[in-house]
């Protein structure tokens, strides 16, 4: 359908509001042109603690940075917030658009129950107070991908408020982890907008309304954070919570979780500074980088006698800096007004539920509370209790997509101690994954393969050094089992006591200096000697047995 050329007061000179039914004219994927795989890696996990803070600049100690996040999470639901159109990622442009989504006159919103339940669930999981009555408002702004000229949101009275989010913060190492809590101001239900796709070649902007009207949860955090790393860890925790609840897939590279970061700096003891807002950050790493850059930029601006203006900025991931997005606009007037086509949203709890009411017609907060699944913090506690693992290890297991499931499957299939499994999964298995930048689902080693290897270790069939050797071969994914590799390469531990004694004897004779050191009282030399015997045995000698033999021979 041909559409009129429209002029808009935005940086791009010519805007064409165009409806298309094919996808070839659209720029697909991420606007930055990064491959989706790469983006997934960047966003799905903070694989290691992030170290994004830059070196403090001169005079920085006088400044305190303040960060407040607004998070938009797309609700996992089959249909949109107020219409029956399907919700699906990467569908052909404008194929999931009802008359209501396109704002045709005469269409009315019909609230999607699933979206309300998702908001209540999320609110409860984030320790919010759930308002039994909330209101919908119109927020006006003009943009090509918002056909109504307003977004339906909950400005005056949101569905949930006054919550908190507790997350782990680590400086440099997982072992230095502490926890921090950020207050949640509110959670509101609102509509997503469509998508503008800029075609630079034609100097046009194309509009895809598939996303228009998809249900969003906007989670507004109080300005309690202080740097990029904290923000990154808070978002990662929120992502895990939403995924555990199933209220959002929260995949950042698919735009299901988008973060706006509000940043200001001030002198401690003085009122908060003027904030800038970096919009639409769609990866955890970029979020951390954008915040730390913006903190530094504001400090140097102020140190050089400049002023911070309340503006909207975006993050240029290629240059690693934030840039102004729109003209300096002052406070935008959204002309909020009540949405006349939606009555107040009324929820009940068991005590307020009217007698004889059809439970399909109402939402009972207590009933939703009863269906809440195990949240990540509880899962971590359980792991610590059940397997005696360190808290930081439980964080690591949950942080990597699919790693917890992998771990639990290994545990189910092996006789090895949980501590051994934890150490192998986090040190060896995760190390290989990271080295090759692979996701757990792409690993050539399955839980049962690793379980079998750990059984061989547990039954003392092989030494732990030989187990590492076998793992290296398993990683090649040639289809051999651990037992096959062990027997083909004759890696079984030596059981022949006399042969072991001979090996110890010849090693001692070959390294008189080490023996001398030991005799002189250098106790650490025993480890050196054990290592030498092990090497001579091609990792087939059990270090505990070698130690016993050596101690006897040297009368230690
Ligand atoms: N001085 C400040 N420095 C940093 N962050 C701040 C400061 N003051 C407020 N914030 C944060 O800014 C965010 C404000 O979000 P809110 O949704 O209330 O308003 P908004 O940004 O004006 O609206 P919009 O939804 O249109 O972006 C909150 O996350 C809050 O914590
Ligand atoms: Mg907001
Ligand atoms: Mg904002």
TrEMBL record:
<comment type="function">
    <text>Allows the formation of correctly charged Gln-tRNA(Gln) through the transamidation of misacylated Glu-tRNA(Gln) in the mitochondria. The reaction takes place in the presence of glutamine and ATP through an activated gamma-phospho-Glu-tRNA(Gln).</text>
</comment>
<feature type="region of interest" description="Disordered">
    <location>
        <begin position="26"/>
        <end position="57"/>
    </location>
</feature>
<keyword id="KW-0809">Transit peptide</keyword>
<dbReference type="GO" id="GO:0005739">
    <property type="term" value="C:mitochondrion"/>
</dbReference>
<keyword id="KW-0067">ATP-binding</keyword>
<dbReference type="GO" id="GO:0032543">
    <property type="term" value="P:mitochondrial translation"/>
</dbReference>
<comment type="similarity">
    <text>Belongs to the GatB/GatE family. GatB subfamily.</text>
</comment>
<dbReference type="Pfam" id="PF02934">
    <property type="entry name" value="GatB_N"/>
</dbReference>
<dbReference type="GO" id="GO:0070681">
    <property type="term" value="P:glutaminyl-tRNAGln biosynthesis via transamidation"/>
</dbReference>
<dbReference type="InterPro" id="IPR017959">
    <property type="entry name" value="Asn/Gln-tRNA_amidoTrfase_suB/E"/>
</dbReference>
<feature type="compositionally biased region" description="Polar residues">
    <location>
        <begin position="41"/>
        <end position="55"/>
    </location>
</feature>
<dbReference type="GO" id="GO:0005524">
    <property type="term" value="F:ATP binding"/>
</dbReference>
<dbReference type="InterPro" id="IPR017958">
    <property type="entry name" value="Gln-tRNA_amidoTrfase_suB_CS"/>
</dbReference>
<keyword id="KW-0436">Ligase</keyword>
<dbReference type="InterPro" id="IPR006075">
    <property type="entry name" value="Asn/Gln-tRNA_Trfase_suB/E_cat"/>
</dbReference>
<dbReference type="InterPro" id="IPR014746">
    <property type="entry name" value="Gln_synth/guanido_kin_cat_dom"/>
</dbReference>
<keyword id="KW-0547">Nucleotide-binding</keyword>
<dbReference type="Pfam" id="PF02637">
    <property type="entry name" value="GatB_Yqey"/>
</dbReference>
<dbReference type="GO" id="GO:0030956">
    <property type="term" value="C:glutamyl-tRNA(Gln) amidotransferase complex"/>
</dbReference>
<comment type="subunit">
    <text>Subunit of the heterotrimeric GatCAB amidotransferase (AdT) complex, composed of A (QRSL1), B (GATB) and C (GATC) subunits.</text>
</comment>
<dbReference type="InterPro" id="IPR004413">
    <property type="entry name" value="GatB"/>
</dbReference>
<dbReference type="InterPro" id="IPR018027">
    <property type="entry name" value="Asn/Gln_amidotransferase"/>
</dbReference>
<feature type="domain" description="Asn/Gln amidotransferase">
    <location>
        <begin position="405"/>
        <end position="554"/>
    </location>
</feature>
<keyword id="KW-0648">Protein biosynthesis</keyword>
<dbReference type="GO" id="GO:0050567">
    <property type="term" value="F:glutaminyl-tRNA synthase (glutamine-hydrolyzing) activity"/>
</dbReference>
<dbReference type="InterPro" id="IPR023168">
    <property type="entry name" value="GatB_Yqey_C_2"/>
</dbReference>
<protein>
    <recommendedName>
        <fullName>Glutamyl-tRNA(Gln) amidotransferase subunit B, mitochondrial</fullName>
        <ecNumber>6.3.5.-</ecNumber>
    </recommendedName>
</protein>
<keyword id="KW-0496">Mitochondrion</keyword>
<dbReference type="InterPro" id="IPR003789">
    <property type="entry name" value="Asn/Gln_tRNA_amidoTrase-B-like"/>
</dbReference>
